[in-house]
TrEMBL record, chain A:
It comes from Podospora appendiculata. It is a peripheral membrane protein. Pfam families: TPR_EMC2. Component of the ER membrane protein complex (EMC). This is ER membrane protein complex subunit 2. The lineage of its organism: Eukaryota, Fungi, Dikarya, Ascomycota, Pezizomycotina.
TrEMBL record, chain B:
It comes from Podospora appendiculata. The chain crosses the membrane at residues 46-71. It holds the Pfam family MMgT. GO terms for cellular component: EMC complex. Belongs to the membrane magnesium transporter (TC 1.A.67) family. It comes from the Eukaryota. It is found in: Endomembrane system. This is Magnesium transporter. Keywords: Membrane, Transmembrane, Transmembrane helix.
TrEMBL record, chain C:
Keywords: Membrane, Transmembrane, Transmembrane helix. It comes from the Eukaryota. The lineage of its organism: Eukaryota, Fungi, Dikarya, Ascomycota, Pezizomycotina. It is a multi-pass membrane protein. It holds the Pfam family EMC3_TMCO1. Its main location: membrane. One of its GO terms (cellular component) is EMC complex. This is ER membrane protein complex subunit 3. It comes from Podospora appendiculata. It is found in: Membrane. InterPro entries: EMC3, EMC3/TMCO1. The keyword Transmembrane applies. The EMC seems to be required for efficient folding of proteins in the endoplasmic reticulum (ER).
Amino acid sequence: MAPSLLHPPSQLSHAAALQLSQQAPAVLRSSPSTVSASPLSALFSASESPELWTKYENLLLSCLRTGDERAAHQCLERLVARFGNDNERVMAFKGLLKEADAENNGQLELVLKEYDQILSDNDTNIPITKRRIALLRSLGRVSDAASSLVRLLEFSPTDAEAWSELAEIYLTQGLYAQAIYALEEVLILAPNAWNIHARLGEMQYMAATASGAGAGPYRKYLAEALKRFARSIELCDDYLRGYYGLKLVTSEVLGDSAGSTKQNGADEFSLPDPATIERLNELATAKLSEIVRHAAARDPGWCGYDELEVAAARELLTKDASALPGVVR
Amino acid sequence: MTWISKTITVFGGLLLAHACYSAQEHSALQSLRAATSTLTSSSPNTAALPVDIAIETVVATLVILLGLVLGTRPLRPIQWRVWAGKIEREGEEGFVDNEGEVNKDYVGNPFRMLEARPGFVDIRKQRREFAQWVKNGDSAGAGAQ
Amino acid sequence: MAQVPVQTIHRDPQLFYWILVPITIVMILTGVLRHYATVLMATAPKKLDQKTIREQRSLLHGINVRSNFHVLSKRSFTTRRDALTTAYESGAYLKDPERRGQAPPNPMSDPSSMEGMMGMMKNQMAMIIPNTLIMSWINAFFSGYVIMKLPFPLTIKFKSMLQAGVATKDMDPRWMSSISWYFLCIFGLQSVFNFLLGNDNAASQMAQQMGQMAPPTGQMFGPGVDPDKQFIAEVENLAVIEHYSVLDGVEQRLLEGITV
């Protein structure tokens, strides 16, 4: 199945990206090289569609990724011809191309300077701000990136993408509380995003199992992680990632049942009683094995799962099967 | 469309065509009779359509409807969780239309963007990873052949 | 039953070619012209400076917190509520904090809001001028003709609409005069414009009239609205929320709802 050019390519596998960029000559040939903005010619030529520009953008990204700079430059030229040099999005793409072309850190610093220059002229250019943050992070200056990101969010607190990036940056720095706060902001903006619920659960789980967490926060984090995973499953039937997390958390809680069962304050979530956790664990195990079985047999209607995720689930199940008799019975 | 629904639709179409033809014949006959019997002027209510033609029309319509309904794809889920589960479980294959192509407005998980974050893409890292993948893939491919 | 005798009026068939078709073509061309005139006259949305963006988006943020509070735990929600309330009340997000409490500037004197008004005026003009011109053109050349007969019967009420310019009392309302054809074109060409110009064209009058009836939601940040008052109102909205979380009892719901 050919990947569609209408979806952003950053989530594709390498093979799919390669396939996309190999389509580049055909796509570039089949679509008109310039679309004039003048109304007279638009009356007579085929009308442009937003899809065409999405296509160019995604093609640009795929080609850059696979190292096909010529096609990428062509895409950019067409975007510039249509939207002009001052369009914020086009500016960001130009910067992206320069970043990709840069050979050493010196050139990257130049690109960074250019971004600073653009931003000093117009400090509301959000695409360029994001590029600058991404470049800072790519150069390894993570704390700089974080502070710029905080400044961006200060004046634009409704940008879910930026909040999510901030959460990941904090996570790489090991600042779990801040990362969780940022991810909660994403959830406020997209309350039904099941993958963000699962991601938050994962972060809570990481925070709980990280060394240095005391007994109180440990249980608090685990409780909320369990609930987050449960919510992600509630939002999405047969969500592999949610069940995986649910199984991990419940196993962790059950293995640690020796710990204190004292309840947290009323403001916090508390763990459900052990019988419920036990049942949740069983449910997760059963569902996971069902998903793994169907996905392994490539049953029709079960082919959407990522192979790596299925493999990880299978591994968890086998590990669990070998460990379970020792723990429970 | 399966062959069952196709056959039913075609059959309904034939039935409908037959009903139309009958009605046409009937009206032609009526006008002929009216023309010949103007002198006697004793045609009380001959203009009405015979009831069997009417019934045939209705039945034909129902049969066509049945065939078309049988031939449609299953309806899209309208519950959030079912819809989301379908995206996760079936991927693109759950969203093909009658022509067997993936729907144009299918975007996969719309919230995946929040994790992929295209605005913050680290293009150099992606290029490095891709180059690495190509190198590994080549060696693996050479080994497999 | 007494059958109403069918009125027949013998018309010159040339009427059809020299009135009906020209009016239609002129109407379509005017629509296309209006579309492009609107596109050309449209000014790019004005760039907002950082302070303004911050003011608007902070308010939106508060609204988002208020409407989606249920994804948060109680503690996270209270933290956010406290932070937002303090910031809103102190006016930290305001564009120009020293102007707090003063009356909002008169929208007429504010140059930035004048631009919006000018845009509206331009749109109005683009609609009114061609309509007036065409109407007077039709009145001058084609008034007083009956040009066609509608294929369906109509009640007597339609007479004033369809037979404008033809003062004949007893005529069947199915007969149409040229000016009525013009009105019919105004309301009926929507789908033609959709076909020619795409869905979001500026040619159709219906869409513009709809737009006038329902004011756009962008009014929230429109001129003459005091952001400080909005912030204070949002503080009150946040204060009355009684918190609950979707995560309460989610395990029970899950265990009841999902069977393996």
